[in-house]
Amino acid sequence: MTLGGSLGAARRGSLRDVRLSHVITVLEELYPPAWAESWDAVGLVCGDPDQEVARVLFAVDPVAAVIDEALEWDADLVVTHHPLLLRGVHSVAATTPKGRLIHRMITNGVALYTAHTNADRADPGVSDALARAVGLTGGLRPMVPAEDDPRRGLGRIGELAAPVPLREFTRRAAAGLPTTAWGVRASGDPDALVRTVAVCGGAGDSLLDTARAAGVDAYLTADLRHHPASEFAEHGGPALVDAAHWATEWPWLADAERLLGASSPEAGKLETRVSTLVTDAWRLHEEGAL
Ligand SMILES: [Zn+2]
């Protein structure tokens, strides 16, 4: 055990009186697993509900750099948006990157919990935080309301305080989101006025037709591909604003952190942190030379 580990264990000996099971109960009230898509895998990935928790790290991606940060900070629980194990696995041997992560977490007593499409559908959820980050105000409404509660659902539609040209909205969106190599790109007339905007955190190309039908001026999401985006413009659809996948979901982490801390006196004792590591898949960006 390292010196840091010994000190961490001593420190936590006095603080550790919140059980992981309590944190899970709170997270599942905020983000009920039943709201997740049928293909999704949410909830506790590793960890013992009976273990005690003092430090919680929030991050978008359960990747090695985030687990490094969790271990360095002596976290007991990592809450991520993306699942580590989405498809069926037959082994978590430390012979694959994911297996190694599972081993490192279990060996060091770190639990991993995922809130993914259930957090997308929550109120407030992933797209509420994104909408506020890019300057939308007022009553946000879902792009696709949930059948049992129209206040929540997929994506959000809101208004800017005043109309601005697309180029200015794109600039503001970039300024409101964390910096990535990908940046923020837009299709459409740069001078067209934008006031009503739809947003969807993460890969939102399945909601392109929904955005068009909603009559918004612009639709901001991530992972848009050339052909759908090009055809969308040809059909006179709203402007498209394409941000880095990680950047569109990162604003939600602070919401989840705040809501967890405010949920109960016990949870209020937790030390929490939002990871600022940029774990977007794209790391370099160069302009063309011709
Ligand atoms: Zn995502």
TrEMBL record:
Asked if Secreted is a keyword of the record, the answer is no
Provide the Gene Ontology terms for cellular component. cytoplasm
Q: One GO molecular function term? A: metal ion binding
Alphabetized SUPFAM superfamilies for the sequence: NIF3 (NGG1p interacting factor 3)-like
The highest taxon in the source lineage is: Bacteria
The record lists a divalent metal cation as bound by: H81, H82, D120, H245, E249
Which UniProt keywords are present, listed alphabetically? Metal-binding
Q: How does it assemble?
A: Homohexamer.
* Protein family: Belongs to the GTP cyclohydrolase I type 2/NIF3 family.
What NCBIfam families does this protein's entry cite? Answer: YbgI_SA1388
Q: What is this protein called?
A: GTP cyclohydrolase 1 type 2 homolog
Q: Which organism is it from?
A: Actinomadura meyerae
- Taxonomic lineage from the root: Bacteria, Bacillati, Actinomycetota, Actinomycetes, Streptosporangiales
